[in-house]
Design a protein that fits this description.
Helices cover 72% and strands 3% of the residues. It is an all-alpha fold and 284 residues long.
Amino acid sequence: MLEILIVGAVSSAIYAMLAVGFTLIFGVARILNLAHGSFYALGAYGAYFLTSQLKLPLLPASLLAIAAVALFGVGVERVLIRPMRHSQLAVLMITLAAALVIEQALFLGFGSEYRNVPAFIEAKYHIGGVDVAGARLLALGVGTLVIAALWTFIQRTRLGSAILAISQDPQAAQYMGIPSDRIFSLVMAISAALAATAGILAGPFLSVQPTMWLLPIVKAFAIVVVGGLGSIPGSILAALMLGYAETLVGYLISTSWTEIVSVLATLLMLVVRPAGIFGRRAAF
C-alpha cells in the first residue's frame, strides 16, 4: 500500500508539472499548444546532451537545459503562435507541425535508441519496508516545490497579477496598460520550463526517445479536460487522480492497461461534465 502511495505521488507530481504549464498557456492565451510535450522531450534530451557530450555536471546542465527550452518556447510563441493566435485551429495545426519537426530533429540528432538521463540521486531509500529510488523522491519533492513557487509567484508578485488579470479579462487588462504580448511570451517561457523540468526529473526512470512527447501531451490534455480547461487547481487535482488511478491499475491489473486510464477519464468527463471539475476559463 505504501509503495502505491509513493509511486502514485511521484506520477502525480510529474503530471502536475506538465498539466499546469499546458493549462496556464490556455488560461492566459486561450490556445492549446500541442508542442507542449516536445518541451518535455527537449528538457530530457538537453540534460542528456550536456552531461554526456559536453561533460557538464548534472545540476548546471539541467538548469541550462531548462533555460534553453524556455527561450525556445518564447521563440515558438513569437514566430509560430502569435501570427496565428486569431485562429485556434491554426494554432493547433502549427504547434502539431512544430512537435513533429522536433521529433524528427531528435531522430536525426540522437537516433531512435533509448537514452539514459543521469539521476541526481542514484541511491535507493528504504521507507516503511519499501525500496524507493532517490530519483523518484526527488521528482516528488521538486515537483511540489515548483508548483508551490508558481502559485506564490502568481499570487504575490506584480507580474503574477498581470498574468491573472489577462487570464480573467484580456481586453480590460490591455486597457489598463498591461502589455499582453510580453505576458504571453512570459507564460510560454514558464510553461516550457515546467515541461522541461518534468522531462529532466522523469528521465532517469522513464524512457527517453524521440517519440516521448506524444504520451505526455495526451496525459496533459486528459488532465486539463478532467480538471477544467484553464483551471490550475483543477489540473493539480486531476493530476493526483490520474497518477493514483494509473498506479492502482498497474499494481492491481497490469501496467499495459495504465495508458487507457487517461483516455477513459477524458471520455467520461466529456460525457458527464464537459466543463471539467472546476469548469473555469481563467488560469486561477
